[in-house]
Amino acid sequence: MSSDPESDATLVAAVREGLDLSVETLAQLVGCHSMTIYKWGYGTLSPNPYQRALLCAFRRAADLGFRPGKGRIAATLANDGISRALYAVLRHADLDAKLARQRDGTHLVSFETEP
User: Fold this and answer.
1) End-to-end Cα, the chain, rounded Å
2) How far apart are CA 67 and CA 88, in angstroms?
3) Average pLDDT, stretch 67-87?
4) Band of the pLDDT at 73, cuts 50, 70, 90?
5) pLDDT on residue 78
6) How many other CB atoms are there within 10 angstroms of residue 103's CB atom?
7) Pairs from 77-84 (Cβ < 8 Å, separation ≥ 24)
8) How far apart are CA 32 and CA 77, in angstroms?
9) What is the 3-state secondary structure (H, E, C) of the chain?
10) What number of CA atoms fall less than 13 Å from residue 24's CA on the CB side?
11) Would you tell me how many other CB atoms lie within 10 Å of the CB of residue 47?
12) pLDDT grade, residue 15 (50/70/90)?
């Protein structure tokens, strides 16, 4: 699925500004080289569907007011690894879905097996 390069550039800029991320930190979070982030920003390359989904979730977290502080995500990456850093951002992106489920009384399907 091809996406609009201009919207990719806008999305990357919004994520970087909203979460105060360096190119290098964003590249680590989405699993690519920092040059790839620059190419998305210039519109010469588009993120794959997985990377775009992460970018959209990161933007949602920023739009919901998640402000980790300058360098905090980079520090989490360095100290605790990629999984913890992704969790730190993505848990904030899901807040709005949780609130909506609480309002309308719906729940996510559980894949846990009953004893």
Assistant:
1) 42
2) 11
3) 83
4) confident
5) 83
6) 8
7) 77/25, 77/28, 77/29, 82/28, 82/29
8) 14
9) CCCCHHHHHHHHHHHHHHHCCCHHHHHHHHCCCHHHHHHHHHCCCCCCHHHHHHHHHHHHHHHCCCCCCCCHHHHHHHHHCHHHHHHHHHHHHCHHHHHHHHHHCCCCCCCCCCC
10) 5
11) 21
12) very high
Residue type, 106: T
CA distances from 93 to 1, 46, 75, 105, 115 (A): 23, 22, 20, 20, 32
Burial of 22 (0-12, 13-18, 19+ CB in 10 A): middle
Mean pLDDT over all residues of the chain? 80
Q: Which pair of structure tokens corresponds to residue 66?
A: 């998640």
> Average pLDDT for residues 48-58, to the nearest whole number?
92
The span from the CA of 99 to the CA of 24, in Å, is 32
